[in-house]
Automatic annotation (TrEMBL):
Keywords: Methyltransferase, Transferase. This is Methyltransferase. Residues 1-21 are annotated as: Disordered. The keyword Plastid does not apply. Residues 1-11 have a biased composition (Basic residues). Belongs to the trimethylamine methyltransferase family. One of its GO terms (biological process) is methanogenesis. Its EC number is 2.1.1.-.
Length: 515
């Protein structure tokens, strides 16, 4: 058996020199996707025409008075059967003039996310009613403490770039208090950009006050808004959600970026076909964008058609299949066609634990959306059981998955330096291997992603280490983070001020601060 070449003194010296050089990470937020195009140019043209035709001739029902007034003043019409029609000229104008320069600001500017072009970012998400308890694995209702824990674990994961509210705080019954404490738990748990939903339009002012206080002033928040309001502005098929429309308008006027979400379920609230579900979702989302820009032409709006898939044998959601993956990739491709900041939903495994189903379903969907060029992929981590439950340890395991997916998005950079023809010639005329060459050491960290938890030991070494599955290893890492990682980006004095103004449910002890 051939022996591995030993490290010589020269090799060790070269490695030490390479270690001293400035390191370039193997992956980073905002890598450019867009190489995967499940729709042909002809397909895109058909989808686009169907979208414009539906908006112009069918429109949407249940529009609010404010929306009717604004859209009709801009050239739309309101029919006798109470449907609001959007002429294609208005829709085209909206798309052409919508902002392409949307940046989701972090409380820490190091976490700012540029959503222009085909830049790809990974996010949590879900709004699950339950969690899989990290101690016993059993499913239970989620709490505001769980939400804070999820935020601070994601804060520590370098490949989770954005925190979207993933757990509904079921321990707070009053919706106004729940919305406020949801935002507080997320913003206290991470300095990355945060996205939340708002239950009722009346709850927006208090949420704005919280954000203005954290930013230092209303003007400071409007200049660098670090929280997005997600709005499911439609109740498919082709109906507006009246209260959500009022929430959308209030959020825009308060200075929040907004994510415009359509989430019909194929075969139930949208057509059973992939193409039909896609067309309806795109039409519904564009209708929301028209209204958002009529409220404020400078709104930072994210185009977020997020159609879901049902198991047509039972009617229940099944987001782990190939249908969901290709549907999300196609929705992302339509966002790229319109050149709009785009968010997709991916990673909604139907699995209930970290097993083979969990890994295969998540990888398929997230990789498809990333390579299609979605700017913000939500539900990419932490989710299980078809959005019904969050696993804290899954965030840790998924961080590795996301890093590997991002490495594939980065792709192959073909340059003379990367080809290294001179290095090949030097090695072939010299030692005959690349293990000790400076070129190898200089690129081993910049070109390769090394998983934190993925086990690359031999079977014997793995058995000697306890034969532990990745779920157990991830659980230990999550427990350690929960014991040690208490982000301090919000100063202690400011936290005390927030508690004096707002009814904060998380105790000081729960966020790692002295009482």
């Amino acid at each position: 058996m051939a022996q591995r070449p030993r490290r010589r003194g020269r090799t060790a010296r070269i490695e030490a020199e390479a270690e001293a050089e400035v390191e370039t990470p193997p992956v980073w937020p905002g890598l450019n996707g867009g190489g995967f195009r499940p729709l042909s140019d002809a397909d895109i043209a058909h989808v686009d025409e169907a979208v414009l035709m539906l908006l112009e001739t069918l429109g949407l029902s249940q529009a609010t008075p404010s929306m009717i007034d604004k859209v009709c003043a801009a050239g739309g019409s309101y029919t006798d059967d109470h449907r609001l029609l959007f002429p294609r000229a208005l829709v085209r104008k909206t798309i052409a003039e919508a902002r392409r320069d949307v940046v989701l600001c972090g409380q820490d500017p190091a976490h700012d996310l540029d959503l222009s072009g085909t830049r790809v970012h990974m996010s949590s998400g879900g709004g699950a009613p339950g969690v899989f308890d990290i101690e016993d694995g059993h499913y239970r209702d989620g709490t505001v403490r769980d939400l804070y824990d999820a935020a601070r674990i994601c804060d520590a994961m370098e490949n989770i770039h954005h925190f979207s509210r993933s757990i509904v705080a079921r321990d707070i019954e009053d919706t106004a208090e729940m919305d406020l404490n949801t935002a507080y738990a997320c913003l206290m748990g991470t300095s990355k950009h945060v996205s939340v939903s708002v239950s009722e339009p009346e709850n927006v002012p208090q949420l704005a006050e919280l954000c203005y206080a954290i930013a230092g002033s209303e003007a400071a928040f409007r200049a660098r808004p670090f929280l997005t309001v997600m709005v499911c502005h439609v109740v498919p098929p082709m109906r507006f959600a009246e209260e959500a429309i009022d929430t959308l308008e209030a959020a825009i006027l308060a200075g929040f970026p907004v994510q415009l979400i359509s989430a019909g379920q194929a075969g139930a609230t949208s057509p059973a076909t992939i193409a039909g579900s896609l067309v309806q979702a795109v039409a519904e989302t564009l209708a929301g964008l028209v209204f958002a820009r009529l409220v404020d032409p400078n709104v930072a709006a994210i185009f977020a058609p997020k159609p879901l898939v049902a198991d047509l044998r039972t009617g229940s959601m099944c987001a782990g299949g190939g249908e969901q993956a290709i549907l999300m990739a196609a929705a992302a491709q339509m966002g790229r066609y319109y050149d709009l900041p785009t968010s997709s939903i991916a990673g909604i495994t139907d699995a209930k634990t970290l097993d083979a189903q969990f890994g295969s379903e998540k990888n398929l969907a997230v990789a498809s959306a990333a390579h299609a060029g979605s700017n913000l992929i939500t539900q990419a981590c932490g989710m299980q059981a078809s959005l019904l439950g969050v696993s804290l340890e899954a965030y840790v395991a998924d961080n590795d998955m996301l890093g590997n997916i991002l490495r594939t998005v980065r792709g192959v950079e073909v340059t003379p330096e990367n080809i290294g023809a001179d290095v090949i010639a030097e090695v072939c005329r010299g030692e005959g291997h690349y293990l000790g060459h400076r070129h190898t050491f200089s690129r081993m960290k910049s070109d390769y992603f090394y998983p934190h938890l993925g086990d690359r030991r031999t079977p014997r070494e793995w058995e000697e280490g306890g034969s532990r599955p990745i779920g157990e290893v991830a659980r230990d890492k999550a427990r350690a983070l929960m014991a040690e990682h208490f982000p301090g980006h919000i100063p202690d004095a400011l936290d005390r001020e927030l508690r004096a103004r707002f009814n904060i449910r998380l105790s000081r002890a729960q966020i790692g601060r002295p009482e």
